[in-house]
Design goal:
This protein has 328 residues and is mainly beta. Helix content is 12%, strand content 49%. It has 2 domains: 30-160, Immunoglobulins (Immunoglobulin-like, Sandwich); 165-327, Immunoglobulin-like (Sandwich), CATH 2.60.40.
């Protein structure tokens, strides 16, 4: 009986070991550690992993330790004594708040941490210049010993093109949705219509939804502008003979009340709905400009956008087909 009990316990231990070994492990942090010459200061600049996907935020921390036997005071003058820097985005959730003076007692350590959110326009331009391959991002930490004496540390991490994950079928709002799960902001996006093809004059019912797929609270922040919006192309007819039609954008927010900030709990969604064309749509001109060659339909593109921060808007598109007037 005792031997049997030991065998059962042994098998249970083996099964537990297999489960632990097979459980997906989080990627290890990536750090660069160094000692500042002629001082008793050492530092560690770290990110939570070494490889990121296009559009993904980068959390980073910088720890300065006084290994000497007397206090050291950092003095940035009118600038932060310690600062994280990375081009093409904005640092958020900085903790603690930037300080122009920091005193480290002997043996003490001081850590600053934040989260870098990329700017859509910067990434788009960078990808274009690098022919679709960014490669890496370099984070800098600045240590200001005195107002006119600064040292810096750097850490490069892989920043690779991202293939967004497809929208899970069970999350679709309808049978006519375009969607994806995107690294930028840890969001699931989908834009849906009530059908794919329309006759001239029919109303397109549009749904634009965002879901927080992270495990933390996320805030979309448009500043003074909508945190979420939808727009479509419109053309104003020429006012005088010989003039070209004038391109404009027709926005959902032009005629609807909107939120400038949207806070999403983990798993929470936010939905806006729009009916197009509106009373302001110059429909005949729009379908003429967006006509598909050799067929009597127009491709109507709806651009759904959202703001991770003020002036940092990301976009997502859906399309439908609309018959020209003479195709009814």
């Amino acid at each position: 009986m005792k031997r049997k009990s030991m065998w059962i316990l042994g098998m249970a231990g083996l099964c537990l070991a297999v489960l632990v070994a097979c459980k997906p492990q989080a990627p290890p942090p990536k750090c660069f550690e160094h000692k500042i010459d002629l001082t008793g200061l050492t530092y560690a600049l770290c990110t939570d992993k070494g490889r990121y996907r296009y559009g993904e935020a980068i959390p980073a921390s910088f720890t300065l330790t006084n290994t000497g036997d007397r206090a050291v005071t950092l003095d940035g003058g009118d600038k932060p004594a310690l600062e994280l820097q990375l081009a093409g985005g904005t640092w958020t959730d900085m903790s603690p708040a930037p300080a122009t003076q920091i005193t480290l007692e002997a043996g003490a350590a001081y850590t600053i941490a934040g989260r870098w959110i990329p700017d859509y326009a910067y990434l788009k331009k960078s990808v274009s210049l690098s022919r679709g391959h960014l490669g890496f991002m370099t984070i800098y930490a600045v240590i200001r010993l005195k107002p006119d004496e600064a040292r810096s540390a750097s850490l490069s991490v892989d920043y690779m093109p991202d293939k967004p994950a497809p929208l899970p079928p069970q999350n679709r709002l309808s049978d006519y949705c375009t969607g994806e799960q995107r690294s930028a902001g840890d969001l699931e996006l989908q834009i849906c219509t009530d059908k794919r093809e329309y006759q001239f004059g029919e109303t397109v019912q549009i749904q634009w939804q965002i879901r927080n797929i992270s495990n933390k609270v996320l805030t979309l922040d448009g500043g003074e502008d909508p945190a979420m919006d939808i727009y479509a192309a419109n053309w104003l007819p020429a006012s005088e003979e010989g003039e070209a039609d004038r391109y404009v954008e027709e926005h959902w927010s032009d005629t609807h009340a909107y939120e400038t900030q949207i806070q999403l709990e983990p798993g929470e969604t936010y939905l806006i709905e729009w009916q197009w064309p509106t009373a302001h749509t110059n429909l005949a001109t729009v379908v003429t400009h967006q006509k598909v060659p050799d067929v009597n339909v127009a491709r109507i593109i709806f651009v759904a956008d959202y703001a991770l921060q003020p002036n940092n808007r990301w976009s997502f598109t859906g399309e439908t087909f609309y018959a020209l007037e003479d195709n009814q």
